[in-house]
Amino acid sequence: MGESKVKTGVVIAAAGSGTRMGMDINKQYLEIAGKPVLARTIQAFENCGLIDEIIVIAAEHEVEYCRKEIVEKFGFRKVRDVAGGGEFRQQSVYNGLMKVSPDCDIVLVHDGARPFVDSRCIADCIEAARETGAACVAVPVKDTIKRADNEGFVEGTIDRSFLWAMQTPQAFRYDLILEAHRNAILEGYTGTDDAVLVERIGGRVKLVMGSYYNIKITTKEDLAIAEGICAVTGQIVTTY
Q1: According to the model, what pLDDT value does residue 199 have?
Q2: Confidence class of residue 235 from pLDDT cuts 50, 70 and 90?
Q3: Whole-number Å distance between alpha carbons of 113 and 92
Q4: In 70-99, which positions are buried (b, 16+ CB within 10 angstroms) versus exposed (e)?
Q5: Terminal-residue alpha carbon distance, the chain
Q6: Mean pLDDT of the chain
Q7: Which of 32, 194, 212 is nearest to 117 (CA)?
Q8: pTM listed for this prediction
Q9: Residue 49: pLDDT over 80
Q10: What angle do CA 118, 176, 44 make, to 5 degrees?
Q11: Helices marked H in the chain — which ranges?
């Protein structure tokens, strides 16, 4: 980072359900090596000296549970608020952005179900957003990507050297991401991530090298992979 400190907040989106898990419990509260997914995610930002405040977005009916069983139980002091989410992720993130301190310079958005984010990714993303206005953690695609037609036949092979798989965190100047979200609301547009909202208003988004460990817990198979990552890395949450 540069010499001057910028105030930085993070919105952690944890209002999703466990639908694809086939479980009644929200995937954010499932345990990996004895600790809830969401607690591991928050810990990464709690430990990072570059982060000043954390806003957690939980499902409306789980706000108090999240506050008591995650924030209070694990003693997270940087969590400024636990707010209720919306019907869709984009609405939930916007709710979180409205809870961020107005004097924040940079705001990160991170998936609550990505517990293996490390301090290097966080720091690099903040630095890039500070320089360019918007930055996203991503990794180069490793698989061959085919384009299919409507009948399920291969129509072509895409050059993967230009393809990146997006991850989080995604970091933005606070005023820029607010403008992008409000523009999307006015136009009735729903994107698959926050970066695309910035792209739609003409913003350029810098890609920052992520980590293949930085997986999103979505299916039961991901839980097994996560346990393996814990075993391989030993300590999965690092400090900056």
Answers
A1: 98
A2: low
A3: 14
A4: bbeebebebbeebbbbbeebbbbbbbbbeb
A5: 12
A6: 93
A7: 212
A8: 0.92
A9: yes
A10: 15
A11: 37-46, 63-66, 89-97, 119-132, 174-187, 195-200, 220-233
